Amino acid sequence: MAALAAADSSVSSGPMAAKSQPSAPQTKSPGSMTNGRASTQGQWGRAWEVDWFSLASVIFLLLCAPFIVYYFIMACDQYSCSLTDPVLDVVTGRAQLSDIWAKTPPVTKRAARLYAAWVTFQVLLYTMIPDFCHKVLPGYVGGVQEGAVTPAGVVNKYEINGLQAWLITHLLWFANSHLLSWFSPTVIFDNWIPLLWCANILGYAVSTFAMIKGYFFPTDARDCKFTGNFFYNYMMGIEFNPRVGKWFDFKLFFNGRPGIVAWTLINLSFAAKQRELHGHVTNSMVLVNVLQYTAAPVLQAIYVLDFFWNETWYLKTIDICHDHFGWYLGWGDCVWLPYLYTLQGLYLVYHPVQLSTPYALGVLLLGLAGYYVFRMANHQKDLFRRTDGRCLIWGRKPKVIECAYTSADGQKHHSKLLVSGFWGVARHFNYTGDLMGSLAYCLACGGGHLLPYFYIIYMTILLTHRCLRDEHRCANKYGRDWERYTAAVPYRLLPGIF
């Protein structure tokens, strides 16, 4: 379920070539399909054809993912975050499914207005205010930036202003909390389930619009893919870079805004609710808000800020460079990310946990260590690629594997794969750092319930799948050179284990 994550948004795509030329595979439009089969096979992005297992997986996710989100949120609302009690109640006859549904708050006019205002505000920040942060913050790269070359040979330009949008949004949030009092800081928690229905409406609406657009008025028909299977096309997307106008890019907007900008606000609202209900904010809730890095609220704030500080780098990740825009990203970024990535803060509203000082310090150190590994691994890769290997990694000249590959247009290219630094420890050691942060995020909630640990379970499955997916593509691309690379760096994630 790799694209149902915005943490997906934070992960990069394995060992990157220091100087690889992007391939330009042949692409199709509906007119180039014969009996649902592509006349030629591109090797980028999603599949041209769908096998039975992929189709079954797609249908399963389309049917079950919305229910999974509802189940987790309902369990907290009605069963104090127990994942087993709802099932036991139904099995033993103490409750009917209709009873559970009847107790679920419906969408309300207040929630609809709140959500519409939120999305509209983020659209305006994204499209109407050019970035000024890059002019005043040393080291920050923002403003107009170029993305990777698409399979059709197009180089899209992006207005990178996510950090600016995050800062403006949060300045207004704190101004309201301490000065303006337009709304209660607990407003998100108080409308959490009604907002869930609004998020679902937007997720399905934008996914459906993207599919219709791909068929009838694509931004670039050469960057479209069709399988002949409706469900796969709907979930995985048809267009590579759907856009409205010159600057509104669906992938960049929905991956970064409104979900990730809201991430820290959601946890702040949970913290405000915990204080309202219990009279204080626990150190576990503080951890979850600070580490907001794929981990806990404390860890999460670090992660969100890191994402927007490195938004230009994000243009080089799998999400932008390989994935198409469909339900997978559209609904996933509107619903899956903001609702399931914030379960720890929601849990702590119902179960305030005060951690011992040594335990809290250990969680914090684990989260920070994970962040360091994640960020430095990606920094080493970027430095290596930007300098074509003419740099120092861990104080030494980097070791490389020289590779050659042939693109779909028949041209031969050369590249280098890094085997020094963190990339000599494991082939996806940045993912290992991500998982360390994710574990810290969950450990901040103590060990009373399973629900807060959904995140580390999900991220382990997600990143393992992404790891295998990326390596399959690299093996096809580099052939025997990839075998040389895996012999030099034998482990994927955990040295000596996997």
TrEMBL record:
Residues 1-39 are annotated as: Disordered. Residues 20-39 have a biased composition (Polar residues). It holds the Pfam family ERG4_ERG24. It is found in: Endoplasmic reticulum membrane. The keyword Lipid biosynthesis applies. Its EC number is 1.3.1.21. GO terms for molecular function: 7-dehydrocholesterol reductase activity; cholesterol-5,6-oxide hydrolase activity. It is a multi-pass membrane protein. It catalyses: 5,6alpha-epoxy-5alpha-cholestan-3beta-ol + H2O = 5alpha-cholestane-3beta,5,6beta-triol; 7-dehydrodesmosterol + NADPH + H(+) = desmosterol + NADP(+); 5,6beta-epoxy-5beta-cholestan-3beta-ol + H2O = 5alpha-cholestane-3beta,5,6beta-triol; cholesterol + NADP(+) = 7-dehydrocholesterol + NADPH + H(+). Pathway: Steroid biosynthesis; cholesterol biosynthesis. Residues 1-13 have a biased composition (Low complexity). It comes from the Eukaryota. Catalyzes the last step of the cholesterol synthesis pathway, which transforms cholesta-5,7-dien-3beta-ol (7-dehydrocholesterol,7-DHC) into cholesterol by reducing the C7-C8 double bond of its sterol core. Can also metabolize cholesta-5,7,24-trien-3beta-ol (7-dehydrodemosterol, 7-DHD) to desmosterol, which is then metabolized by the Delta(24)-sterol reductase (DHCR24) to cholesterol. Component of the microsomal antiestrogen binding site (AEBS), a multiproteic complex at the ER membrane that consists of an association between cholestenol Delta-isomerase/EBP and DHCR7. This complex is responsible for cholesterol-5,6-epoxide hydrolase (ChEH) activity, which consists in the hydration of cholesterol-5,6-epoxides (5,6-EC) into cholestane-3beta,5alpha,6beta-triol (CT). The precise role of each component of this complex has not been described yet. Interacts with DHCR24; this interaction regulates DHCR7 activity. Interacts with TMEM147. This is 7-dehydrocholesterol reductase. It comes from Camelus dromedarius (Dromedary).
